[in-house]
Design goal:
It is a single chain. The strands form 3 sheets. Strands 10, 11, 12, 13, 14, 15, 16 and 17 form an 8-stranded antiparallel β-sheet that branches. The chain has a 5-stranded antiparallel β-sheet with strand order 5-6-9-7-8. A 4-stranded mixed β-sheet has the order 1-2-4-3, covered by helices on one side. The chain is α+β, with helices and mostly antiparallel strands. The chain has 14 helices and 17 strands. It binds flavin-adenine dinucleotide. Flavin-adenine dinucleotide (FAD) binds next to strand 3, helix 5 and strand 9. Its cofactor is FAD.
Length: 462
């Protein structure tokens, strides 16, 4: 039971640089929301931090008053971990500063920044930090789970580019985590999620990618999907790490390069990014264009920032979402057959079957370097179930669960950031046994009371 009295809250407010919000106050309704509309929770307090000092105050307050504490970065965790009923949200979203050091391409990013904030600043210098593909996602949660996107096959995961972090621990102590300071904590932050503390700032190595990339989307006809995927899964694995090609099976959104009659029909979208010349990128993508018929395509040199926000509208805030995922060991014929069966039964226009190709730089980092564990997976299967009406919950959840179950025999492991609330055993699947044991030891050391537990939780007792 929390002991946060009105007087204690008043005292906290007096010490706080940002705002501390309660129900009924201006800003509370917006601040309590997270990306996934399934989670409609009402915390007692929302501490909107603007400084590291605020974060420390909030942690100490939550601890002293035995409150359930959620930490909110970009609020995009599909399992809704950044919010809670009755407790305290430590909201980092006002902390979004990004500073680029031109001398060494180091990029210092506040704990509540969004990917778009990071691209916006780094692109001033022709740099990018390897991260995800939707600009309104939070740097915080994404990085702490691993972080991959269009340039990670060439430049590594977000965690592979992390140089150091400022961390507020469960005791409210401020630590630096890097290869030389608290290296055990640094290891755990790189894949162990928000289990060990609140990162108020990350320092990354930026990659000099320039301001444009050769990129595009090919929309393949669904009727030839089996043939196309058989070729795709083999071909993309032969490509240099500069080229990243993914696959999305979904109902065609109204993309301007598609004829109107195709909108709303089942297609295989093939988005790609090449870090190199248009000529060489064009040569590398041609075999995928030639294989089976397409409804249309768009390809060319594109501004990186535009590409990075090009998919934002398809996954905007507030819809109901349920994600299931696992790493596929291969896209065998049998596995593709299951995928296509479920594609034909997509429960809504907004659902997607998302199949990124992962190999490349992440697999060149030694397995024990970070807590991010499954570095050698070729493909991820993401079942993005997305709908608007509560009355569709049962139907949509059932589709996702059945699909996941039907493809489990082709899978090994999962990315922690793509988990829903699937229970303790499933969190373990994001790690190898060695990594898990090390994470539990670390949790015992840095958060023995499991103060940070609204996450894909690693209990200190294992
Ligand atoms: C539309 C969309 C697109 C996505 N695309 C990608 C992608 O391309 N690549 C990829 O790797 N992942 C992707 N993801 C998954 C994403 O990595 C996770 O959803 C991640 O949890 C989002 O982080 P957040 O800060 O926005 O979320 P939040 O819900 O705010 O936080 C997620 C978890 O991290 C903790 N946390 C957040 N910030 C901090 C911090 N600074 N310090 C300590 N703990 C913190 C929270 O407490 C919570 O437990 C995507 C998700 C969505 C919804």
């Amino acid at each position: 039971m929390s002991t946060a009295t009105e007087e204690k809250i008043r005292e906290l407010r007096a010490r706080f640089r940002g705002n501390v919000l309660m129900a009924g106050e201006h800003g509370y309704e917006t601040a309590r929301k997270v990306w996934n509309g399934m989670f409609d929770k009402r915390p007692l307090l929302i501490a909107r931090c603007v400084t590291t000092g605020d974060v420390i105050e909030a942690v100490k307050f939550g601890r002293e008053h035995k409150m359930l504490v959620a930490v909110k970065g970009g609020g995009h965790n599909s399992a809704g971990k950044a919010t809670c009923d009755d407790g305290l949200i430590i909201d980092l979203s006002p902390m979004r500063r990004v500073l680029v050091d031109r001398e060494d391409n180091h990029v210092r990013v506040d704990g509540g920044a969004l990917l778009g904030d990071m691209d916006n600043e780094t692109q001033l210098y022709g740099l990018a930090v390897s991260a995800g593909i939707v600009s309104h996602t939070g740097v915080g949660g994404l990085t702490l789970g691993g972080g991959f996107g269009w340039i990670s096959r060439k430049h590594g995961l977000s965690v592979d580019n992390l140089l150091s972090a400022q961390v507020v621990t469960a005791e409210g102590e401020l630590l630096t985590a890097s290869a030389t300071e608290n290296p055990d904590l640094f290891w755990g932050l790189r894949g162990g999620g928000g289990n060990f503390g609140i990162v108020t700032s990350f320092t990354f190595k930026g990659a000099p990618i320039g301001n444009t990339v050769f990129a595009g989307i090919i929309a393949k006809k669904f009727q030839n999907a089996a043939d196309y995927i058989a070729f795709h899964q083999h071909y993309v694995r032969t490509l240099p790490d500069e080229m990243t090609v993914w696959m999305v099976l979904r109902k065609a959104p109204p993309l301007p390069f598609l004829p109107e009659e195709v909108h709303g029909s089942l297609v295989v979208l093939v988005p790609f990014v090449y870090l190199g010349s248009e000529e060489e990128g064009g040569r590398l993508i041609q075999p995928l264009i030639d294989r089976t018929d397409s409804h249309g395509m768009i390809t060319g040199m594109m501004p990186w920032k535009e590409w990075q926000s090009g998919f934002d509208g398809l996954v905007d805030h507030g819809a109901r979402n349920y994600w299931k995922s696992h790493h596929l060991t291969s896209l065998s014929e049998e596995c593709v057959r299951e995928i296509l069966t479920f594609a034909e039964r997509l429960p809504t226009e907004e659902c997607e079957i998302f199949i990124p190709h992962m190999e490349g730089a992440p697999a060149k980092v030694a397995a024990d370097t970070t807590a991010f564990a499954h570095r050698y997976t070729p493909f991820v299967l993401n079942i993005h179930t997305r709908w608007r009406e509560k009355s569709d919950d049962e139907r949509c959840l059932a589709w996702a669960r059945e699909f996941h179950e039907a493809t489990t025999r082709f899978a090994h492991g999962v990315y922690v950031n793509f988990l829903s609330d699937e229970g303790k055993t499933r969190v373990r699947d994001a790690y190898t046994d060695e990594v898990w044991e090390r994470l539990v030891r670390l949790k015992k050391k840095y958060d023995p009371d499991n103060f940070f537990r609204l996450n894909q939780n690693i209990e200190p007792t294992g």
